[in-house]
Every structure is written in C-alpha cells, then in structure tokens.
C-alpha cells in the first residue's frame, strides 16, 4: 500500500505551539521532510519540531523548491521534488512535511499537496498557528472584534495597490513579507493620514529575538516580519 503525505503546520517559532496532532503524526511517520530554497540551508520549521520527535529510526529529507525568477526552472524543480516524494510513497513510506505557521497561509506546501493528490496519493493537511495570530496575542491585540473585517496581504513594491486598497477598505490589515517594505508601509500610512501608532511590527515571533512593538525605522527587519495595522 502506498504511503500518505502529511503537510504539518508547526506554528511560527515556539515549539510549545505545535499541536498534539502534529507531534503524534511526526512521531508515527517514516520520513520527516522539509522544503528548502537552496540545498543545505536548513529549516526553521524542522528546528521547531526537532525537540518533539524521536528521530532515531526516521529518515530526514530536504526537498528543494527554488525561488528562481524563471517560471520553467521553478516548475521543473517542483516536479523533480514531487517525483522523489512519490518514490518514497510508492515504497509505502508516510511522509510528514513540516511548514512554518499554517500550511494554508502563503506556504509552498499546498502546491505540493495538490500535485501529490492529483497523482492519486492520499494527503492530509494539519493546521498550525499562523504567525500573525501568535503576534497579535503577544501584542494583546484582537485581530478583529465585533463587526470588523481583516485583510491579509503580502507586500512588495509591485503589489502596493493591494495594500493601499486593504488600508482603504478594512479596519484591520495584516501585512505579510513586510521585511523590505517597512518604509513603504510608513509612507503609505502617512499619505492616508493614518497615525503610525496604529501599526504593530511582529518580528520573529516565538523565536529568541522576538520583537513585537511599534515601527522603528532605525531597526533592521529580517524575513520573518509582519505588520498588523488596526485603524481603530
Ligand atoms: C512564506 S510566508 C509563511 C507564512 C506562514 N505559513 C504563517 O502561517 O505564518 C512568510 C511570512 O510569514 C510571516 N512570518 C512567518 N513566521 C513569522 C514569525 N515567526 N514572526 C513574524 N512573522 C512571521 C512573515 O511575514 C514572513 O515574511
């Protein structure tokens, strides 16, 4: 019988936020897998679950998903990784692929899930706590309350329109992938007459060097940076 692929959301950084279900599946599976952009770069998601899983008799496998700007390179790379996963599944091995936060929030995992499922294998997605949910709880802020709505948008120079529309239309905005765009977010808030105190930076939440606080333009922000804007 073919193996099954699990996509395991492991939360944003704190091992204590991994669900019991995720831990049990990781301990029961044959292979713990993690996606990387560059071979050998390691995985924050794998480091989060490492203390919870008995890795003695398990295979640990990295699967490369390049972020090459060329579409065809990314597609080929993905197909190669999926072929290799199918080889393991054909051997009857269950694979648990870990992914940061929740698999449904900007994670490559869901593409892999579809590709594996289209090839006729069984798959299951196990939710994790998204980074912005943990960040809002550390900040002591409700993501939305009463009749309010919430927009979750990724930010980059090319899609600043999406952020602008979200700021115009929603009471609460979660800005993902904000690390290079803090000055742009500040500029946009100011141009709309919004007070900067309405923005909270959520940086490396659940990790050793966590910062959750106001926007500080003199700070360096790494990849794990999200901004929560609450208009009221
Ligand atoms: C590819 S997305 C992955 C999102 C993830 N699946 C989730 O549920 O949060 C990467 C973005 O998620 C956010 N992120 C992930 N982990 C984070 C953390 N520990 N602290 C703050 N933001 C984080 C950042 O905005 C980062 O650029």
Structure, described:
The protein is of the alpha/beta class. It has seven helices and ten strands. It folds into two domains: 123 residues, Cobalt-precorrin-4 Transmethylase, domain 1 (3-Layer(aba) Sandwich), CATH 3.40.1010.10; 100 residues, Methyltransferase, Cobalt-precorrin-4 Transmethylase, Domain 2, CATH 3.30.950.10. The chain has a five-stranded parallel β-sheet, with helices on both faces. A five-stranded mixed β-sheet has the order 6-7-10-8-9, sandwiched between helices. Bound molecules: S-adenosylmethionine. The site of S-adenosylmethionine (SAM) has 24 residues, from helix 5, strand 8 and strand 10. S-adenosylmethionine binds next to helix 5, strand 8 and strand 10.
Whole-number count of domains? 2
Q: Which architecture of the largest domain per CATH?
A: 3-Layer(aba) Sandwich
Count of strand segments: 10
The outline comes out as elongated
Widest sheet, order of strands = 3-2-4-1-5
Q: Name the hetero compounds present.
A: S-adenosylmethionine
CATH superfamily of the largest domain: Tetrapyrrole methylase, N-terminal domain
CATH topology of the largest domain: Cobalt-precorrin-4 Transmethylase, domain 1
Helical amount: 25-40%
- From the alpha-carbon coordinates, what is the Rg to the nearest angstrom? 19 Å
CATH classification class of the largest domain:
Alpha Beta
Ends apart, CA distance between termini: 55 Å
């Amino acid at each position: 019988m073919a193996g099954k692929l699990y996509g395991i959301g492991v939360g944003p950084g704190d091992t204590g936020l991994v669900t019991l279900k995720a831990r049990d599946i990781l301990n029961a599976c044959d292979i713990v897998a993690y996606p990387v952009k560059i071979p050998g770069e390691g995985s924050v998601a794998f480091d989060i679950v490492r203390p919870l899983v008995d890795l003695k008799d398990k295979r640990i496998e990295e699967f490369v998903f390049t972020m090459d700007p060329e579409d065809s390179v990314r597609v080929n790379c993905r197909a190669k990784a999926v072929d290799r996963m199918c080889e393991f599944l054909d051997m009857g091995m269950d694979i648990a692929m870990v992914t940061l936060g929740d698999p449904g929030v900007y994670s490559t995992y869901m593409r892999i899930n579809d590709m594996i499922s289209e090839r006729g294998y069984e798959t299951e997605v196990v939710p994790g706590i998204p980074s912005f949910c943990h960040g809002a709880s550390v900040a002591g802020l409700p993501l939305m309350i009463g009749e309010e709505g919430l927009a979750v948008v990724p930010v980059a120079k090319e899609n600043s329109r999406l952020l602008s529309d979200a700021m115009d239309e929603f009471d609460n905005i979660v800005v993902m992938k904000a690390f290079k765009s803090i000055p742009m977010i500040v500029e946009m808030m100011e141009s709309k007459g919004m007070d900067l105190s309405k923005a909270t930076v959520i940086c490396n939440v659940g990790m050793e060097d966590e910062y959750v606080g106001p926007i500080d333009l003199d700070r360096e922000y790494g990849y794990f940076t999200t901004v929560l804007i609450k208009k009221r």
